[in-house]
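B., you asked whether I could sanity-check this one before it goes into the benchmark set. Here's the sequence:
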Amino acid sequence: MSDVLIDAVRSLVIIVGLLTGMAYMTWFERRAISRLQVRIGPNRVGPTGLLQPVADALKLFFKEDVRPSMADPFLYPLAPGISLLAALAAFAVLPVGPPITIGGRQIDLIIQDMPVALLYLIGASSLGVYGVVLGGWSSGSKYSLLGALRGGAQVVSYELVLGLALVGVVLVSGTLSISEIVTRQAQTVPYVIVQPLGFLLYFTAAIAETNRAPFDLPEAEQELVAGYHTEYSGFRFALYYIAEYVNVLTVSAIAATLFFGGWTGPFNQLNGPWWLLIKMTVFAFVFVWLRATLPRLRYDQLMKLSWGLLLPLGLLNVLVTAVLVVLTSGGAHA
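And here's what the prediction gave me:
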């Protein structure tokens, strides 16, 4: 089996898994929120509503695709695809398990293991802002444009915090390889223990990056009609919808991998994709829990939190971590 074919199969498995997980993330969210708010939730389509994602997909696929007369003919249909591509691309460097042997050949459970994977991860995740800004601008609507500008400012602001949070992991591990970061956590301790502030900063920034409550201002229904995707309908709107939920799964996988040991765990029998899936499910539930619990922030509160509190804490965390690493290593990192 050629390396190209193996890469293609691994990519296909990851994409199908993410899209399937995204579909049932919507079901999981609606059921969990209904329980938290003492409601019933989806329960009509299939047993306990398990076929509701299929019904939603069919409805959006066959819904009329309305294109504004002033929309850009090239960028308007392209923008939702950029958001989805950025969400999927980030998973390319995340290891989901140890190597397995098929037909006498060892196959790594990662699409592309590169020595600078963490830099790629930050770069790929930051591409999502182009889908937001281009979607609002290309719609030919001033309301969409204002929503896109606000959404872009939010994503860029919290992207800085997210990057600083991951710098602490790089300093502690001494590598940019995500596979190596997972291995070193298995040999020592999960990095959430030595980087608790870094984890809190990362997770807070990840919530804002994915436009989730209480930071869901770019698409808040009472703000600027519907934000940057006001003029989108049908399948193109569904692409934005899919990208948001795939992003939730992706940032959950990143948090589990970089701070909680990834596919490794205390019970060797579960080591592999099962441990990663369990950790991702816990983080996904936290996303849902926050949406059901916290009210939405005002935009000025959102930006003040980023620039006034989280960014200084991120810089402080990097500084303290760097000093501690140099002191504990006897100057070897200097």
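One thing to flag: Strands lie at 97-102, 105-109. Otherwise nothing jumped out at me.
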